Amino acid sequence: MRLVLTSMKLAHVMTDETPKLGTNPSEEHKAKVSKWMDEDEQAQYLAIAGMVPELQRQHEKLETLGAILFRLKELYGATSRTQQFNLSCQLFTMKMNEGDSVN
Question: From start to end residue, where is composition biased (Basic and acidic residues) (predicted)?
Fold first, then answer.
């Protein structure tokens, strides 16, 4: 996905924070925010198009590409809940050998 977004000059939306309008923004700032939002929307469509239908349904309501990527990292990252659960199960089922020191 990074390759496609880079080729379309949209890769910055993966890392940049969503710009805020703030109070009394200038026309230039409004245009900048609007451009960023349009680019982020294009990147979201590309990301969602590359997903299986179940993941599409789970992620189509998220507002930014950053939110989609964060959610995917939660689901499939190195410290996913499933992996944490499996590690906890292994830890809690471990047994000491007779005669081992508790210290």
Answer: 26-35
**H helical segments located in 26-98:** 27-49, 53-59, 65-76, 81-92
Average pLDDT, the chain: 86
In a domain, 61, yes or no: yes
| Structural domain count of the chain | 1
Amino acid at 51: M
Residue 34 lies in a domain: yes
What is the band of 78 on the pLDDT scale with cuts at 50, 70, 90?
low
The one-letter amino acid code at 57 reads: R
Domain range for 69 is 2-92
Answer whether 0.70 is exceeded by the pTM: no
Instruction: Tell me the C-alpha distance between 81 and 92, whole Å.
Output: 16
Residue 103 is assigned to a structural domain of this protein: no
